[in-house]
Amino acid sequence: MDIQENIVNKVAASGLVTLNLEHYYDHGERVVYDIKDNLFHGLMLREKDFREFIKTHDWAAYSGKNVAVICSADAIVPTWAYMLLANKMKPYANEVVFGGLEVLETVLITKAIQKIDLSAFTDQRVVIKGCGDIDVPIAAYVEITNVLTPVVKSIMYGEPCSTVPVYKRKD
Question: What pTM value is reported for the model?
Answer without folding.
Answer: 0.83
